[in-house]
Prior knowledge:
Blueprint: E1 12-16, H1 21-30, E2 34-40, H2 44-47, E3 55-59, H3 68-76, E4 79-81, H4 85-90, H5 93-97, H6 107-114, H7 116-125, E5 133-134, E6 144-148, E7 158-160, H8 163-175, E8 185-189, E9 194-203, E10 208-221, H9 230-235, E11 242-250, H10 257-274, E12 281-289, E13 295-301, H11 318-321, H12 328-342
Parallel strand pairs: 1-2, 1-4, 2-3
Antiparallel strand pairs: 5-8, 6-7, 6-8, 9-10, 9-12, 10-11, 12-13
Helix pairs in contact: 1-12, 6-7
This protein binds adenosine-5'-triphosphate.
Adenosine-5'-triphosphate is lined by residues 131, 145, 151-154, 157, 188, 190-191, 195, 219, 242, 244, 288, 298-299.
Amino acid sequence: MVDRIILESPRTIATLGSHSALQILKGAKDEGFETLLICEEKRLGLYKRFKFIDEILTIKQHNQAFEKKSLQHLHDAKSVIIPHGTMVAYFTYSEIDKISIPIFGNRKILQWESDRNLKQKLMNASQLITPKSIQSKDEIRNLCIVKLHGAAGGRGYFLAWNKESFEENAQALVNQGRITGEEDLFIQEYIVGVPTYLQFFYSPISNQVEFLGADIRYESNIDSLGRIPARQQLSVNLEPSYNVIGNIPLVLRESLLEEVYKMGERFVKASEGLVPPGIPGPFCLEGVYDREGIFTTFEFSARIVAGTNLYINGSPYSDLLFEKPMSMGRRIAHEIKIASEKGLLDRIFT
Ligand code: ATP
């Protein structure tokens, strides 16, 4: 166990240069913090354009972000680190656990986000409806989505509707060296409907769950297949892929909101029980609304998601809750400010 630095009043908000860094640091600046970006050399050109970034700590590659020299720098600046998707993709849970600088949120829950079994356990405990798991290729009867463990951005996912279509695609992944065998794959019922990402923030200071926005991901090439007429689709060998290119805003039917809040609240409660202290800060429930308007959750993210980048100037939902434009990045900084003023930082940092 590494000795963690305890901050009484953080001065700087720091994050890794990628994913939602612009939103996080803009929000931090708007709330009166100094901002620090840990940035790969090759990305400096982009990030140097923005005046709200006070300081840039240059590294060669993301995986050097928390070496001794950076940690000292972060410490001297009285920093708190905001984790995001790139941080989770580049660092294992045990590496994140060893970082001595305070991290916003519950770092333990990041492990639950990256482990399929733990993830399922938390979704079950939250009483969320989840897609059925199919135990074997012999049990495939309807349309299924076949997933690779830890495949960022759905790379390599494929659709199967019977044993043969499963075997054909699995063999192709083996041939490409993506998997060693069929046992590396995970088969799940495919839910037909509108894939939706629900963005929440939980404040342990006010003890409230806030629903701050929703989005749809626009993915290549799955979202462009509909532009190709059926005859051409059938005659060309096209395989769907799920590489996220961007996000599209979504406003939900107002009648869906009550259940959205209930799902968020159940998730917060279950996290507190299974992974204390729970989930202070942002999280996202990721799923599909079917034709009855029922939400089936296939994933969650236990930190800020990139879909919140849409609402840098606030969202239709944050506008109902706050007097000022409140992005998720700014909401994080706001929580740090309030917790710091009230001497309650231990509720939001680990
Ligand atoms: P990331 O790490 O970026 O969140 P991922 O690898 O976890 O990505 P997902 O976002 O979970 O991948 O899924 C990729 C795509 O597959 C998305 O378009 C999602 O809507 C779709 N998808 C995942 N599970 C299901 C399901 N059970 N039914 C229908 N679509 C699904």
